[in-house]
Design brief:
This protein is α+β, with helices and mostly antiparallel strands. The chain has a 9-stranded mixed beta sheet. Helix content is about 45%, strand content about 20%.
Length: about 375
């Protein structure tokens, strides 16, 4: 069992790194940020240097602020989330389960309606054996695939019900498929093709789509400060801050940066992401992002180019998201409900394995449990 006294000592040992103090260094970072924001040539300058850090691109001022409306009277919102039970060799079976939770909320002058869905899918472990990936990672890749499939299915139904009213599809997580960058080529090709096909179908439906990322850890704006200090410190007049900020930037995130200038229910300009994986995206689907201050936190919204290139759609998207956050008391109510439909709890896991065992017995097949599982069922001293 966990030794609480020793845990406390361990937490105290790492406290300085766990809770980094940004006070003085934050003021320095704010000064450097102001310098690069005032430099109208900075967007061009960063293209002249070769750096290992991922850098965004943008139009207009780097620190532009846009006020976000907080109310939208009539619209439909669809949200999807997923969870899973990974294969467990100790349970004597290689099957896994993916549960997709979906919610369709309708807001209108005549009232509201709610439709909730929970769709479990069982995989038996021998699908796509040719792929060079671990069973758990394949479950993760499939989960995102089926989240998109559910989105397309319910988006089509939503369109049939709404007569082209304003609609939004919220996805929990990133639309930049980072997890595929390090995968073997066969896995990357297989799932990237599926993901992009889903995004294309949503584009054809003209459904406003956004990946919602709470507690973002992204560092693309932080990387702009790194470049400024590494290559243009003297030119920008910020040489004195180089050493002071060197360590701090390792701990800072984009959320720290945008807090310098965003107030509640305002957003940044739109940025274009340039990660390696996005080279495979069609032009209309290329990921863009912005940061939105929702009062309780800074969130990152990611959306495809066809939305990013139309200011009216960006405004509509952020307004709908802000309205969802207010209705959800700090987090989009549709995503919260989708999570509730998707979540697999301990009792659900026990039920799943109980039913696997029961069906196995009915088929005259006895599951071979590992001794590890048997020992957990009853500790004897």
């Amino acid at each position: 069992m966990l030794n609480h006294a020793k845990v406390m000592k361990e937490l105290q040992r790492v406290a300085d790194k766990l809770f980094f103090n940004f006070e003085d260094e934050g003021d320095c970072a704010r000064t450097v940020w102001k310098k690069i924001s005032d430099d109208s040539t900075f967007a061009h300058k960063i293209k002249t240097v070769d750096v290992p850090w991922m850098l965004p691109s943008w139009s207009g001022r780097l620190d532009d602020i846009f006020v976000v409306k907080k109310e939208f009277e009539a619209y439909h919102v669809l949200a999807v989330d997923g969870s899973q039970i990974y294969p467990d060799k100790h349970q004597g079976t290689s099957c896994s389960l993916i549960n997709i939770g979906s919610v369709h909320l309708r807001y209108g002058l005549s009232g509201r309606s709610v439709q909730l869905y929970s769709d479990p899918l069982v995989f038996i472990g021998d699908e796509e054996k040719e792929l060079h990936e671990t069973p758990n990672e394949l479950v993760n890749c499939r989960r995102q695939e089926w989240e998109f499939f559910a989105g397309i299915k319910h988006s089509t139904l939503m369109h049939q019900q709404t007569n082209d009213d304003t609609s939004l599809f919220l996805f929990d997580g990133s639309l930049i498929f980072w997890h595929l960058e390090s995968k073997e080529r066969d896995v990357k090709v297989r799932f990237l093709a599926s993901y992009l096909d889903s995004l294309q179908k949503l584009y054809e439906q003209q459904v406003l789509l956004a990946g919602y990322i709470s507690l973002t850890k992204s560092k693309e704006l932080v990387n702009l400060l790194r470049v400024a200090l590494a290559f243009f410190a003297q030119e920008l007049g910020v040489s004195e801050y180089v050493q002071q900020l060197k360590v701090t930037l390792e701990y800072m995130t984009d959320a720290h940066i945008v807090r310098f200038f965003l107030k509640p229910f305002t957003r940044t300009t739109v940025f274009k992401n340039h990660s390696t994986i996005t080279k495979h995206y069609p032009v209309d689907l290329h990921p863009h992002f912005l940061y939105l201050h929702v009062g309780s936190e800074i969130v990152r919204l990611e959306f495809p180019a066809w939305i990013a290139q139309q200011a009216a759609l960006v405004e509509q998207l952020t307004t709908l998201v802000a309205d969802q956050v207010l209705k959800g008391d700090g987090y989009p109510v549709a995503l919260a409900e989708a999570h509730e439909q998707a979540v697999v709890k301990g009792a659900d896991r026990d039920f799943f394995y109980h039913m696997v065992k029961k069906i196995g017995l009915s088929e005259k097949h006895r599951s071979l449990y590992s001794q590890k599982i048997r020992s957990k069922r009853g500790i004897r001293v």
